[in-house]
Structure formats: C-alpha cells, structure tokens
Automatic annotation (TrEMBL):
<comment type="similarity">
    <text>Belongs to the NipSnap family.</text>
</comment>
<dbReference type="InterPro" id="IPR011008">
    <property type="entry name" value="Dimeric_a/b-barrel"/>
</dbReference>
<protein>
    <submittedName>
        <fullName>NIPSNAP family containing protein</fullName>
    </submittedName>
</protein>
<feature type="domain" description="NIPSNAP">
    <location>
        <begin position="5"/>
        <end position="104"/>
    </location>
</feature>
<dbReference type="InterPro" id="IPR051557">
    <property type="entry name" value="NipSnap_domain"/>
</dbReference>
<dbReference type="InterPro" id="IPR012577">
    <property type="entry name" value="NIPSNAP"/>
</dbReference>
<dbReference type="Pfam" id="PF07978">
    <property type="entry name" value="NIPSNAP"/>
</dbReference>
Length: 106
C-alpha cells in the first residue's frame, strides 16, 4: 500500500471557500475514481492557510491508473478550470508514502 499525501496552500482567509468548492465538485469525482480517502484535514493550530488530504492505493500503478481515469473525465477538467478561475490555490505539494513494517494500516 502507498498513501498520496497532499498539502494545498490556499490564499489567506480563503480556506473555507476552497474547501466548499472542493466538497461540492471535486470530492465526488475523486471519490468515484480514486477510491480510498484516508482523511481530509484543515488546521486547528499552525498554518491556517493549508489543507491536507490522504488517499490510499494498492501501489504506484494503481494510483497512476486511477488518476489517469480521473483526468480523462470532462467533469474533472471543468472543475479544475473553475478552481483556476476562483484563484484560491497558491501551491500544492504531494508526497508518496509507504507504511513502515510496524504501522497500523488504515
């Protein structure tokens, strides 16, 4: 198993707007194509302009297959265009993580 760990940095004071747009239009599509969402988080302390979410995959090939299908969907492309027009996102980082041999697997 691998986990795609993503951190989005959003314009200051606009996290709620970004989350609302994602919840309405992005998440249903990602849930359909990507499968297993491990978690979606907003900060309580620390940087208040970042959002983190985690998606689990069988392996890198599974991740690539699922993400290719997502990107091929015209609804996803429309969502990305709407996000771009909203101009809420500053940066995105992602890391591919694998569990240690003693990690509880979600």
């Amino acid at each position: 198993m691998i986990v795609d760990h993503r951190v989005y940095t959003v314009r200051p004071t606009r996290v709620a707007d970004w989350v609302a747009l994602y919840r309405e239009k992005g998440y249903p599509l990602q849930e359909r194509y990507l499968g297993r969402c491990v978690g979606w988080y907003v900060p309580v302390e620390g940087r208040h302009d970042q959002v983190v979410h985690l998606w689990a995959y069988e392996d890198q090939a599974d991740r690539e297959r699922r993400r290719a299908a997502l990107y091929a969907d015209p609804e996803w492309q429309a969502y990305l265009a709407e996000m771009k027009r909203a101009d809420l996102l500053l940066t995105m980082e992602n890391r591919i993580l694998e569990p240690t041999d003693f990690s509880p697997v979600p």
